[in-house]
Write a structure and sequence with these properties.
- The complex is a heterotrimer of chains A (about 300), B (about 250) and C (about 325).
- Chain A has one domain.
- Chain A contains 12 helices and 2 strands; from the N terminus they run ααααβαβααααααα.
- A two-stranded antiparallel ribbon of chain A has the order 1-2.
- In chain A, helix 1 runs antiparallel to helix 11 and helix 2 crosses helix 10.
- The two termini of chain A are about 35 Å apart.
- Chain B has a domain of about 160 residues: Rossmann fold, CATH 3.40.50.300.
- In chain B, the strands form 2 sheets. A 6-stranded mixed sheet of chain B has the order 6-7-8-3-9-10, sandwiched between helices.
- Chain B is globular and about 60 Å long.
- In chain C, helix 5 packs across helix 11.
- Chain C is built from 15 helices and 2 strands.
- Classes of the chains: A mainly alpha (about 300), B alpha/beta (about 250), C mainly alpha (about 325).
- Chains in contact: A-C, B-C.
- At the A-C interface, helix 4, helix 10 and helix 12 of A face helix 7, helix 12 and helix 14 of C.
Chain lengths: ~300, ~250, ~325
């Protein structure tokens, strides 16, 4: 690959940016699956709700309000979904869980299409986020004039902050300790008298909220149209599988890996469209539990 | 003659030595009990015998044929059946269907492309399955869903499933676990009444069951066989007492 | 004589289906159905019956069967354009191609648990969809799709209008009968046991993995036949034949109709297509929204679908009479 340092740096940045959205969605997915054991086929639809909500508030009342309102609203939606629907399915076979969340995904997608129309809604980036960053000013090894869109860098920063916050929550708080323990053995926790139901509710809400954050910042990048939800869900699922189902670190690692893979294969358009599937197949054959997945679990 | 020859089998899970150089010979036609405190490795050994786990070392011969690196279903086709702690049956199928499955497995092997075989050809096998069900006293449940049976009946059904493809070795993993007194008695009766010729290896905690059924007992503790002998020899064996008491102290 | 009696008894459902299907051109217009839609319903009956052998018997939920439907459709189209307008070689080659792909995908995805399987099959459907739009554009016509096929011929018979309907319907009846035979056979029994307790099945001497693969391949063959017939019915293949949307439709049809009953999913197919093409006149663009809601309601309250509803009604109104 004949690549200049400039081009290489740009590809890395693009890889990080692509990875950021994947990581945010995959993080919620794997958190929910690892804790509740539920495969949430409606997660893409949660992202959809987030971007539509964000764009509506943004275009009418400004980005600041969108940022303040959307994540908490998504948290509440997540909690309501868990209480109202998901919890009925804990004792039912996995297939039923998949079916009901799949149905939910379709219903939500169609609902949004009905209300907002099938066309792309432009998401105007706030003025402070607009423009480009002079990368050559920060990275001395770059030659000449190298720029990168500001908003995309912001997205990467947001992803880093969110991932760090989630890890901090899980590893530094008592709540996080309970969740991590629950991820390994939910039944045991129940015997110990821990109110696992409330935890489940919060975790689902958390997963939805992360999708909300992804939507607020990712909306301008992924565009706002009804197909976006499912379009992001499939790669996000694969990232969860590649990283190892139930492994948060794995989701982050795999998300970045896939982002990079897509970025570096961008000039080779045919490979680019299927690189994520190729990587999935290789992982399936060589290391079925995923990069950081636990052995024997869900294999 | 030893139908099952377990030779120097060792298995570690990370740092934990679950089985250490286990040597065990099971004589054909006998009822052989495997006892020992919790965590001794009894279930692990059974899992090795049924192909669920691969040992790090050692060999297992069944009737002269190697048993390691063989798939679970092939192990069953060789003649080894396992009764699980919690009765493993097919809950959403009828009792008759449950028992028909092993009958077909015996005739057709582990896989057969007989997709278009009609009822008329299946008649004799279904009739045989019906027979088996009657022999175990489950006729009135013939067309009931297996999942709706009582626990005791599920245990009988599982026994019927295991016996339907004429195994030569039956492995029982704590068959009376969680059972009330009278159910335990019934199970002992059932096991005693089984045809001679079937070798039985029973892992058990209930000493009453062990002493009622076993002709020979092997004691496993911390992954090793610490004693072996007839029930009388084991009853007062100092090492055995030590192994169990040692556990009780903890 | 006894065998004769058994044949009619055993195949009662097939015969009823044959009767209902072959007379469709008579009663379907009375419901607002139009000619052509009945053919499409028959095609999806084939798709969905095969799908039920996988989902209903073994319990494995595939979101990728549209891949076989679409691959077969594309190959049929290409064969008709470039090889011969005779549908027989086209269908045979198309189904073979899809079957080969099915074996590969089946080997890769069936090793894992049901959850992994569902996710991976979804991914494969999307992968083929992407490939059809990008790298395989030359053959598939990319986003615009494959067109320009000659009038399909069954040797000397022009495949148009009613001829297509009856050809498809006879295939549907035959394939339904085959599915029923499979259900009654030892193979069907083993497949159903997989859904109940795979471990117990293996410990009873059965190679569950091979039966899973068999179910997967059989259902793929059915999907492929449906795909090929789709092109005979309508000379167009679009990339949307391959993706999650098409796969999802089949899942919805099966669940609404009644997973595992073989008949139920066919009713589901009829219902969904009728809903989409006839009732939607009143509902407009929101037909999928309503259908999605119905689907969710079925999964939540009556997971056995329409057939469960029928069974429940039977129990309520007929057991008191029989005293059971």
């Amino acid at each position: 690959m004949d690549m200049t340092l400039n081009a290489f740096t740009l590809s890395i940045l693009t890889g990080l940016q692509l990875g950021s959205i994947y990581v945010l969605i995959a993080l919620g997915l794997t958190l929910i699956f690892g804790t509740l054991g539920v495969v949430n086929f409606a997660h893409g639809a949660l992202y959809l709700i987030a971007i539509y909500l964000a764009v509506s508030i943004n275009n009418a009342l400004g980005f600041g309000l969108a940022l303040i309102i959307v994540p908490p609203v998504l948290f509440i939606i997540g909690v309501l979904l868990e209480r109202g629907l998901i919890q009925r399915f804990y004792d039912r076979p996995h297939t039923d869980q998949i079916l009901v969340t799949f149905g939910l995904a379709i219903v939500l997608q169609e609902l949004l299409k009905w209300v907002f129309g099938a066309n792309n809604i432009p998401f105007t980036i706030p003025s402070w986020g607009n423009g480009i960053i002079m990368m050559h000013e920060y990275l001395p090894f770059l030659e000449g004039f190298v720029v990168y869109p500001k908003w995309r860098m912001i997205l990467v920063v947001v992803a880093i902050v969110t991932v760090s916050a989630v890890f901090a929550l899980l590893h530094l708080t008592r709540f996080g300790l309970v969740i991590r323990a629950g991820m390994r053995d939910a039944e045991m926790l129940q015997f110990l008298g821990v109110n696992i139901n409330r935890r489940f509710m919060v975790v689902f809400g958390l997963g939805a909220m992360i999708a909300g954050i992804a939507g607020v910042f990712g909306g301008p990048v992924t565009q706002v149209s009804p197909e976006v939800g499912m379009q992001l869900l499939v790669p996000s699922f694969l990232i969860v599988v590649i990283g190892g189902m139930g492994s948060l670190g794995g989701a982050v690692l795999a998300g970045i890996l896939i982002g990079m893979a897509q970025s570096f294969t961008a000039p080779y358009i045919y490979i680019n469209t299927i690189i994520i599937y190729l990587i999935t197949v290789i992982i399936l054959l060589v290391r079925p539990r995923g990069l950081l997945g636990a052995k024997g679990v869900f294999e | 003659m030893a139908i099952l020859d377990i030779h120097q089998v060792s298995l570690s899970f990370g740092g934990l030595k679950a089985l250490q150089n286990v040597n065990l010979k099971i004589e054909k036609g006998t009822t052989h009990a495997l006892i020992g405190p919790n965590g001794a490795g009894k279930s692990t050994l059974l899992n090795v015998l049924t192909g669920m786990l691969k040992p790090d070392d050692g060999s297992v011969m069944f009737d002269g044929k190697p048993l390691l690196n063989v798939n679970s279903f092939d192990i069953n086709q060789l003649g080894i059946a396992k009764v699980f702690q919690t009765p493993a049956i097919f809950p959403e199928m009828t009792v008759l269907q449950n028992v028909t499955i092993p009958v077909f497995a015996a005739r057709d092997g582990s896989f057969n492309l007989n997709m278009f075989e009609g009822r008329s050809k299946q008649r004799p096998l279904i009739e045989f399955a019906e027979q088996q069900i009657c022999e175990l006293g489950l006729e009135k449940h013939m067309y009931s869903l297996a999942g709706s049976l009582s626990r005791g009946d599920k245990r009988r059904l599982e026994m019927a499933i295991c016996l339907a493809n004429k195994p030569r070795l039956l492995l029982l993993d704590e068959p009376t676990a969680g059972m009330a007194r009278h159910e335990t008695e019934k199970t002992i009766e059932l096991l005693n009444s089984m045809q001679d010729g079937i070798t039985k290896v029973i892992v058990e905690h209930d000493m009453n069951v062990v002493f009622s059924l076993a002709e020979k007992i092997s004691v496993l503790a911390q992954g090793q066989i610490i004693a072996e002998g007839t029930p009388d020899e084991i009853k007062g064996h100092p090492k055995v007492i030590e192994a169990y008491l040692g556990e009780a102290q903890v | 004589m006894i065998t004769q009696n058994n044949f009619w008894q055993h195949n009662r459902t097939v015969l009823i289906f044959a009767l209902v299907a072959l007379t469709m051109p008579l009663w379907f217009p009375l419901m607002g159905g139009y000619s052509g839609l009945d053919t499409k319903i028959m095609i999806f009956c084939i798709f969905v019956v095969g799908f039920d052998i996988l989902l209903g018997f073994t319990g494995y939920l595939s979101f990728g069967h549209a891949a076989f439907f679409g691959i077969s459709a594309y190959v049929t189209g290409i064969m008709l354009k470039d090889f011969s307008d005779n549908i027989i070689p086209a269908i045979i080659v198309a189904v073979l191609a899809a079957t080969v792909v099915a074996v590969v995908i089946g080997l890769l995805t069936l090793k894992r648990t049901g959850i992994y399987f569902s996710i991976l099959t979804l991914a494969f459907a999307e992968m083929f969809d992407s490939m059809a739009m990008s790298m395989l554009q030359k053959w598939t016509g990319g986003e615009n799709g494959l067109t320009g096929m000659p009038t399909p011929m069954l040797f000397n018979l022009k495949m148009q209008g009613d001829t297509v309907f009856y050809f498809v319907t006879f295939m549907a009846i035959f394939l339904f009968y085959m599915a029923k035979r499979i259900e009654r056979s030892p193979v069907g029994l083993m497949m159903k046991a997989i859904k109940c307790n795979q471990t117990r099945l293996e410990f009873t001497g059965i190679n569950a993995r091979k039966y899973k693969l068999l179910a997967f391949v059989i259902s793929a063959v059915y999907a492929a036949i449906a795909g090929a017939l789709m092109v005979v019915y309508e000379p167009f293949v679009g990339h949307e034949f391959l993706g999650w949307h098409q796969s999802g439709e089949v899942v919805i049809m099966s669940v609404i109709g009644g997973v595992g009953t073989l008949v139920g999913p066919m009713l589901g197919a009829g219902f969904m297509l009728y809903f989409e093409n006839v009732l939607s006149v009143n509902l407009g663009e929101q037909w999928l929204l309503v259908l999605g809601a119905i689907f969710m309601a079925v999964v939540i309250f009556m997971p056995g679908g329409f057939m469960e509803g029928v069974a429940r009604l039977k129990k309520r109104y007929f057991t008191t009479v029989d005293g059971e």
